[in-house]
Fold each of these.
Amino acid sequence: MFRSPDEEDRRLLARVVRHDERALQTLIRRHQRLVYGLCLNVMVNREDAEEAALEVFLKLWRKAELHRGECSVKSFLCRIAINECRDRLRRRTTIIGEVEDPGVEMSQDRLAILCALRNLEEDDRMAIILYHLDGLSVDEAAEALEISPGVLKMRLVRTRARLKVILEDRDE
Amino acid sequence: MNDFKLNQLLDDALRVEETPDLWMRISPRVSTGLSGAELLWAGGVAMAVLLVLVAMPLKAVSVESRWEPIAYKARMRAHQMAASHDKLLILAADNGE
């Protein structure tokens, strides 16, 4: 029988609620790229991102029953990841606006974009990151941010305009 | 800079090249339901219990060896008493009693 990816996720999540480790393993393998990617782009540092992503799945294991079915499992995971990264950023002592050593070689363009993202408001930065992550639709990104797709699109337009200004100022 | 160029830059900048295997790191904590620190504690307690279990038979041996001479003396005394009792019986039989 054919199931959509989200139906499959929900079926797996129901098993995770009953503490089925195999189901958790499958869910992690399906979504670790998305969750780790989100954490990496918010935290920038690879080590911090891995720790945050691990904590996301541990929270899913402990509190899977908090998913009431109102959003997709992917959005639910992104919500947990966003909150986890926000908590960790709050605890971090690095000055905002700086990009700490990411532990990986980066092109100048990439570094410029990451620095520019650091200059954005947190909500705007999250919107851009979620929209550009592989495997997340606009609706799912909006669900993760707990806003409507229309609000997300407006936020993206406004944020892109701001990013352009930051990047052009930097080039001059 | 146009929107297309910016989108392309963002796609490239936010792309994740490699993902670590999170299940490998998470499975021990999920299987036991313990955090890293709790696992360390549990490991320490298990080691302590193991040490006690190993030490107990050694202690038992040393207790046994301490009581061994006393037990030996008691056995010898019992043999002597039995032997002298037998002798008395033999003497009594010889005397026709």
Note: Residues 21-43 of chain A form the longest helix (23 residues).
Amino acid sequence: MKRYGEHRIPGRLFIVEGIDGSGKSTQLTLLHQWLKAEGYGVVFSEWNSSPVVKDTTKRGKKKQLLTPATFSLIHATDFADRTERNIIPLLKAGAVVLCDRYIYTAFARDVSRGMDREWIRELYAFAMKPTIAFYYRVPLETAMKRISDARAGFKFYEAGMDLGLSADPDESFRLFQGRILEEYEKMVPEFGLTVIDATLPIETQQQQMRQMVLSKLTQARQLRVAP
Amino acid sequence: MKENYGVSLPGLGRDDLVGKLIVIEGTDGVGRSTQITLLKEWLEQQGHAVLDTGLSRSGLVGKGIKRAKEGHTLGRITLSLFYATDFADRLENEIVPALRAGFVVLTDRYIYSLMARAMVRGLEPAWVRNIHRYALKPDAVFYLRIDVDELIPRAVFTRGFDYWESGMDLYSAEDMFDSFRKYQSALLEQFDQLAEEFHFEVIDARDEPRVIFERLRQGIERVLIGTTQPKPAAAPAAEKERSADAGEPAVIVMDEPTPVAEERREKA
């Protein structure tokens, strides 16, 4: 089993992190479009999307069967399936892989749910280290406003309602996402996350992102082109 | 107070777990379920409430694992984590509540089987141990041990060779017999090491079922000494008595073998 940082492979892995409403998915979609247009062989992998595991996760969330431990482990299972089946083989084949959320999401959420900080890092030790991990930094109020403008109400686990922080979903979301923000900030130096100011105009953020990605792509010799 | 292997889960209090956690470990086809049926009946006759549980039986992921295994599509890390999720779900939703209510929990396999399978598949021992560090240390682990040569006829004349029990995901070029032999031998090697590390009581599974049952019964009786009735109210006192008596508690520790465990093994 190769550990985080030990893999030497030709592909490139770019991931985005940030709280809900930080705009990271929008940025990743724009990057994806651009890379496709540039002719790169690019593959997109979403958090929580393993065909083997996602039904279990969905059921667990819907019926609220998940505790902090099983929430953590079922997400790790999903991530392991995507890593073993997609991310590693694709990177070995020289693809550009994009991930919307990565292990840092698990670290931030699970520690906020009371799981052991060291334990969770070791649990994900099999993960590939990203070429660049972008962190979209946004104030909590801005993120909450964006979410409430876009849809009605927060989801149960997204608001950390399982923790009983508050009976009010808005208040619970604020408290839980506040904890998550703190965890992200600690991880910026720990994992060398690349911080993007997510309050800047979308176009400006995208420009910064493309510039950094491009510098990593030009160094790569064996990247695939799209068929 | 039950201990864990160094990682606590949020919201999982361990102070009031007055029941007993008894693990029956052993490789496939060694007779674990036969013994558990007998033990449950016997314990209930003695007035103990019993919960029997085993791997992949959790309400959350049990079905998901079965479905995934039918497709033979799981990677080794994914498989280990899927089992770990199942285990955590059963620990929190079955085992802990039963222990709190003063039950004797008989579990058909525990984290040790999960560790053995993962390590046979080449996963790093340190990583594999870490995944299971929140598990409760059992009051006793009985390991039904058998050699692969004795195991083969049991597989041939009962269920035949199963895909996963033959480790076909590992040795796919071979036929099921060769694969079964290799895989089960590798598992036994892992189990033997775990037996040392976690101080299993080793029971020779070549013996007649009633002889094995007798050994298990004696072992469990030692664990239950001081437990009169499975009433939560009576148990804290019993706990004290137990820890005061240095010769008896089968405490499973993760590091050095204790003289107590050594002595117990010799007895077994």
Note: Strands of chain B lie at 20-26, 50-54, 104-108, 140-145, 201-204.
